[in-house]
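Retry 2 of 3 after timeout on previous attempt. Resubmitting structure tokens to design endpoint.
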């Protein structure tokens, strides 16, 4: 049996093939089995498909093209990352560009690659994970576990997935079109669909630091 952890990767371009409703439901039913503090299940997930997703895509892309600054008030981005973390991220970005066939100085290709985020990588399904604002980091952790399991469930059912911070850059658009109430924080979007296996954006293969680097054994 193939290992689901090896199958999952971040897909950055999807085919237009729709996800059958039954498959989507199976993925969501599996992700729903995620553990959480006292089984509180503190996630509210807004799933956009079809015409609603097209409206969302259009509005989001328009905001991006009009250079409306991203609003990270729901999930603040760190002002400064610890240096060793920043180094890992820099290496990852460089690798994604290189393996996607984008030259370092090709500003136009880099821009198109980033813009791709704002039409949700062409995905036929976008799930936005939200949570009541009154909860604490424990529930944020639960929502993260849910997001991880959602991606693994997708792989289990033959779908690609994309966790995307960029997809929640314009929370006001998501609130308006998906009816997300103000008392819920919009945390992250996870795109789902069938990977476009021909597209160079899907060539990158990520690596990990060896477990000796960040797993701390004591015997
Ligand atoms: C919370 C979170 C937010 C992310 N946001 C983005 C994003 O906005 N755009 C993107 O292309 N990838 C995004 N990623 C994907 C990561 O870049 C990717 O997981 C990492 O490089 C490892 O690659 P892999 O998922 O293919 O193993 C995000 C991942 C996570 C977990």
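Retry 2 succeeded. Sequence:
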């Amino acid at each position: 049996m193939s290992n689901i952890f090896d199958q999952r990767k971040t897909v950055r371009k999807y085919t237009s093939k729709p996800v059958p409703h039954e498959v989507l439901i199976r993925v969501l039913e599996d992700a729903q089995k995620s553990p959480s503090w006292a089984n509180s299940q503190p996630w509210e997930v807004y799933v956009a498909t079809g015409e609603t997703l097209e409206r969302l895509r259009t509005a989001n892309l328009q905001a991006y093209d009009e250079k409306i600054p991203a609003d990270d008030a729901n999930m603040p981005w760190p002002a400064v990352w610890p240096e060793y973390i920043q180094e890992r991220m820099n290496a990852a970005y460089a690798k994604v560009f290189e393996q996607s066939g984008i030259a370092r100085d090709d500003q136009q290709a880099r821009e198109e690659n980033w813009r791709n985020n704002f039409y949700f990588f062409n995905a036929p399904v976008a799930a936005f994970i939200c949570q009541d604002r009154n909860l604490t980091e424990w529930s944020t952790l639960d929502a993260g576990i849910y997001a991880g399991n959602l991606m693994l469930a997708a792989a289990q059912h033959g779908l690609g997935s994309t966790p995307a911070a960029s997809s929640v850059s314009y929370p006001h658009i998501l609130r308006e079109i998906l009816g997300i109430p103000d008392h819920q924080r919009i945390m992250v979007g996870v795109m789902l669909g069938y990977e476009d296996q021909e597209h160079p954006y899907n060539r990158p293969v990520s690596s990990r630091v060896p477990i000796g680097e960040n797993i701390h054994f004591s015997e």
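Attempt log closed. The mean pLDDT is 97.
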